[in-house]
Write a structure and sequence with these properties.
alpha/beta; ten-stranded mixed β-sheet; two-stranded antiparallel ribbon; 11 helices; 12 strands; binds 1,4-dihydronicotinamide adenine dinucleotide
Length: 329
């Protein structure tokens, strides 16, 4: 049995975590779950967003499967996700997305977004100035180099041909200018991979018009966050796409989507994004055959149009979709 930390989180988190664990167990993943509180749920229970014992467990077991957590908009505390990423120096946010035959509006998407996960505007340094506020966007050479190198290494190891750097260096000449400059320099170390770069606004248009032209994307934190939601939309929505937060020691796997308060508690959330994240986790811990078995069951279920939840155009419940995936294992 492999030990993993389970963080159900907020909103639809506990519902989709339950579904995913049922599928993992039926597929024979042979995992021992250590469940800990995090987020608003934890705050309500013990007054802490990330209790010390949760951090200790992640430190001990090194691999976690996490449900989404709620962050108040425009007020309140700093995001639990941002704090977790900083606590374990999870500098890579890896978000693969690909078309699914009978589900995706776009049939030719196969893109992996490599998002820098520790700096940019997400450092949350905002200052009051006369008549308003200003926010600091931090781009440093060490954080830039390691994410760009990760993107090229990922491309090399996964038989990918092109890496596109996303930036706004026409306006942010120093910060994004540095990101682009280091990209071009590091690209020289990987002659077998085609380097490409696009300004973020053009990139959005390109992805909607010609997604088939893109392969691996590397981006500073904010552009990576936005663009990966856009790509999720191309392949069928937030209910489908996973993400991995990776550091040198710890890895936390989660869906790209949030806690979906609008549908929480209704039993209609789509568990597939978190299930895909669990498959990334299984590959990370060397259980590739189980990951493949689950991925095949997901694709079969989706392609058959079997028990689809509302976000995918159906009317099934989380439980019905869970059972359909299990029947296809
Ligand atoms: P959201 O991703 O929670 O929801 C956006 C829309 O997609 C909603 O209509 C929701 O119902 C739908 N949706 C999302 N996941 C779904 C699923 N699995 N099945 C079916 N429909 C799904 O984004 P929103 O509403 O902007 O954020 C809600 C909260 O989540 C906020 O507090 C935000 O800070 C937090 N959040 C947390 C993340 C994380 O923990 N990794 C990531 C993104 C947002």
């Amino acid at each position: 049995m492999t030990d993993i930390v389970l963080l159900p989180g907020d909103g639809i988190g506990p519902e989709i975590v339950k579904s995913v664990c049922t599928i993992l167990d039926k597929a024979g993943a042979d995992l021992c779950y250590h469940t800990y509180d995090i987020g608003q749920t934890s705050y309500d229970n013990c007054g802490k967003l990330i209790p010390e014992e949760t951090l200790e467990a992640i430190k001990k077991y090194k691999v976690a499967l996490k449900g989404p957590v709620t962050t108040p908009v425009g007020k309140g505390f700093r995001s639990v996700n941002v704090n977790l990423r900083l606590a374990f120096d999870l500098y890579v946010n890896l978000r693969p997305a690909y078309s699914i035959q009978n589900i995706s509006k776009y049939k030719n998407v196969d893109i992996v977004t490599v998002r820098e996960n520790t700096e940019d505007l997400y450092i949350g340094e905002e200052h009051e100035i006369e008549n308003g506020f200003e926010a600091i966007k931090r781009i440093t050479i060490p954080a830039t180099d390691r994410i760009i190198r990760y993107a090229f290494e990922y491309a090399k190891n996964n038989n990918r041909k092109k890496v596109t750097c996303i930036h706004k260096a026409n306006i942010l000449k120093n910060s994004d200018g540095l990101f682009l400059k280091r990209f071009k320099e590091i690209a020289l170390e990987y002659p077998e991979i085609t380097p490409d770069d696009k300004i973020i606004d053009n990139m959005c248009m390109q992805l909607v018009m010609y997604p088939e032209k893109y392969d691996v994307l590397v981006a500073p934190n904010l552009y990576g966050d936005i663009i990966s939601d856009l790509i999720a939309g191309l392949v069928g929505g937030l209910g489908l796409v996973p993400g991995a937060n990776l550091g040198t020691d710890v890895a936390i796997f989660e869906a790209v989507h949030g806690s979906a308060p609008d549908i929480a508690g209704k039993g209609i959330a789509n568990p597939i994004a978190l299930l895909q994240a669990a498959c990334m986790m299984l590959e990370h811990i060397g259980k590739n055959d189980i990951a493949k078995k689950i991925t095949n069951a997901i694709l079969k279920t989706l392609n058959n149009g079997q028990s689809l939840t509302k976000d995918l155009g159906g009317s099934a419940t989380t439980l019905e979709l869970t059972n359909a995936i299990i029947s296809n294992l």
